[in-house]
Hints:
69% helix, mainly alpha, Amino acid/polyamine transporter I, two-stranded antiparallel sheet
Amino acid sequence: MSKKTLDNATDTGHIHVGKGLNTGTLGVVGSTIIGLASTAPLYSLAATLGYVIVAVGAQAPLVFVVACIPMVFAAFAYQELNREMPDCGTTFVWGAKAFGPVVGWIGGWAVAVSAIMVLANVGEVTGKYFWLLLGNEEFASNRVVVVITSVIFMAIMTFVSTVGVQIGERMQMILMTIQIVAMVAFGVLALWHALDGSNTGSIAFDWQWFNPAELGSWSGFMEAVLLALFIYWGWGTCLALNEETKNPRKTPGRAAISTIVILIVLYVGISVAVMMFAGFGDTGFGLTNEANLDDVFSVLGGVLFGPWGWFLLLGVMLSAASSTQTTILPTARGTLSMAVYRALPAKFAELHPKFKTPWFSTTVMGVAAIVYYVAMSILSEDMLADSLTSMGLAVALYYAITSFACVWYFRDTLRDSARNLWMRGILPGLGGLMLAYAFIQSAIDMINVDYSYTVIFGIGGAFVIGVGAILFGFVLMGIWWLRPNSKVYFRGESLNRDTPVLVPDE
């Protein structure tokens, strides 16, 4: 046994080694930037605000606040688990340590499949807005051109992710700055014109927009919450890059909380300003006009920005493009971790000799997303839209797994202090229950054909895609289970409550 190996041995005799990733690359600011970029805040709000308003009307700001609550509680779970086990496998590792190999594997799969669905949708937006930005509406409405352009962008971002986290961080700094400036400018201009009376459809601010008693439909509320969960999704990237972060036990958790706080301020503030300016009419640029639901911001951008409308288009395109890269990053590191613990073939654990990145995992995620996107585009553009809705099921599932894993893993320490009770027990437990309920209720609602754009086997397409994707994970797990190389994982030998996580020494 080498001296290096002996030096990495713990007091219990376990060997403590890293995965070979480029450690100490990200600080708090860089980690927060990447977390924000993963959520694609400008695109996410633009794509969902109209549908949230259709579902709950003027209570849209309330929905954004409510959807944030389980995310904050889940973030506490991530923070506590990361302090104990700063492994880039996140939900996969924590779920396996708390509940065993099967739950861990499905948690890891849920992370991967949700990322693939998101990549397909943000890739589509990037390709479309690229041509809109160039003023070529003919190409922007041509499905073949948009798909080819989107695939090219996805391939480029996959390559950037392979080159390394540091270059990605620098790129995201620039992209996020443009995106935030565009968002803030949009919100300020909307508020300004709402107050100056230039739009006859403008309405006054009303505190009743935050009143739960004004909700008209519980199913509509749950539909809106699931959509809102999507626009917060992505902050977990901070945790997935923990092994490449300075002070990996503390920095990622702080960055995740910071990301969520920034998002809630942006989402609530801008949604209120837009509602005040546009109103709830079903004609013109009213927020219930069905022609504007897919992208409220591009409709209003020309009115608010005038000749500078291109800047908002640029912001939306960069929002989607940056999210493409930052969505690949955590997913590739999740599959890397799964391979290290023998939950996937060893090939997924291979690192690039120069860049110290999981090149094979990154490539596979990029290719999988491209194949999924092209397949959905060929089958139906509506199926692509349904996949975005159904993605919320996978997100709710793995966030719930993480939240419950926190409670169960730390169960013996909950009575040690009031802090432990709240931060490791009560708050993560409440977050897990809320997310589990959102998963179950949304899955039931998705069965209804009126919930989706497509009908498959006589039921809603969103249900078939969302639940089908999760069940497909069990099939893949079963196939790997049959392989001899998997036995060490499924017997609980490579990863269990007592095994040390394979993270770099601090």
